[in-house]
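User: structure tokens for this one?
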Amino acid sequence: MKQISFVNAIATTKGGSHVNFVTSKIVKAVQAFVEKKNKGGKRAQPAQIKNHLTVFINCLVENPTFDSQTKENMTLKQSSFNKQLVLSDQFMKKVEKCGLVEVVMALTKFKEGEALKKKGGKKKR
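Assistant:
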């Protein structure tokens, strides 16, 4: 996953809890879109979705905590700020249409085919 994030106008180059929180919400939504389109197929794993995701986050957080003086990684617990974030339906529709769902579906179908080849391959002598 690629990420560019800012907390109170401070660049957090390593990300942190705010990035994990936002990406987890997006990943759950994309999983739901993939399951809806790929009925009966293999479920997409969160790591597969995160590999194809680039996130830009700019947030204002009261009293953020960081792991060092360089402030590259925010360590504030998610329970302190998670009540304020709501991803709009309009945003989720844009995520659905951006092509990420199709890429993840193609990857899960490929993985499904690989699993079938492993099960039904030729016997080695």
